[in-house]
């Protein structure tokens, strides 16, 4: 059985020595309120900041989430977008999808459906079901890409196959309308 107090001690020791992975673990610990420490999003944000400043992509993403939601920091979509972009540029699918969402909503950055679809696609191609659902919606509605029901169905199927409930419903809706199914044999 793992001794959480002991784990926290060693994470803290490594974090204080500047180890970015340990700083991120400290942040996770405070965010969750695990290892015998009280939950503190403010403390988590401070540790994520230290780790993110060293280029640790998971910390950059999590710091972006804290700014997006206002957890332990003032809500700031522009700051969230900056941190999501840093992690997204390093290939983190969750950050790519979040950045796509900010572009689609025009939160913290100028609304741009083309950029939204570009970031959704990068995350979707890595298998992230929420991004696959968003790619389906982009194709269904022609947002940032040419409207294409077949492509919408293709992306909805990928997400639905992973159990994404909203994608399953959207796929069902398109099937019921006979959209995106291609030509059928008579």
Shape: elongated
Q: How would you spell out the order of helices and strands?
A: HHHHHHHHHH
The fourth-level CATH homologous superfamily of the largest domain is Tetratricopeptide repeat domain
CATH fold group of the largest domain: Serine Threonine Protein Phosphatase 5, Tetratricopeptide repeat
Biggest sheet descriptor: none
Number of extended strands: 0
Bin the strand percentage.
under 5%
The tally of structural domains comes to 2
The structural class is mainly alpha
CATH architecture heading of the largest domain: Alpha Horseshoe
Q: What's the total helix number? A: 10
> What do the pLDDT scores average to?
95
CATH class of the largest domain: Mainly Alpha
Radius of gyration: 20 Å
Terminal CA distance reads 63 Å
The percentage helix is 55-70%
Low-confidence stretches: none
């Amino acid at each position: 059985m793992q001794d959480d107090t002991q784990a926290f001690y060693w994470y803290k020791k490594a974090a204080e020595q500047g180890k970015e992975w340990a700083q991120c673990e400290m942040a996770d610990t405070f965010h969750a309120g695990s290892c015998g420490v009280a939950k503190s999003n403010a403390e988590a944000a401070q540790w994520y900041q230290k780790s993110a400043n060293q280029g640790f992509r998971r910390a950059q993403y999590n710091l972006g989430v804290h700014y997006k939601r206002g957890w332990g920091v003032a809500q700031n979509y522009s700051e969230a977008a900056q941190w999501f972009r840093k992690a997204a540029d390093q290939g983190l699918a969750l950050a790519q999808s979040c950045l796509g969402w900010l572009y689609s909503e025009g939160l913290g950055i100028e609304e741009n459906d083309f950029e939204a679809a570009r970031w959704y696609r990068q995350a979707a191609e890595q298998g992230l079901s929420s991004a696959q659902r968003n790619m389906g919606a982009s194709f269904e509605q022609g947002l940032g890409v040419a409207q294409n029901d077949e492509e919408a169905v293709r992306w909805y199927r990928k997400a639905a196959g992973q159990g994404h409930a909203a994608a399953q419903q959207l796929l069902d809706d398109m099937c019921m309308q006979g959209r995106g199914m291609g030509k059928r044999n008579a």
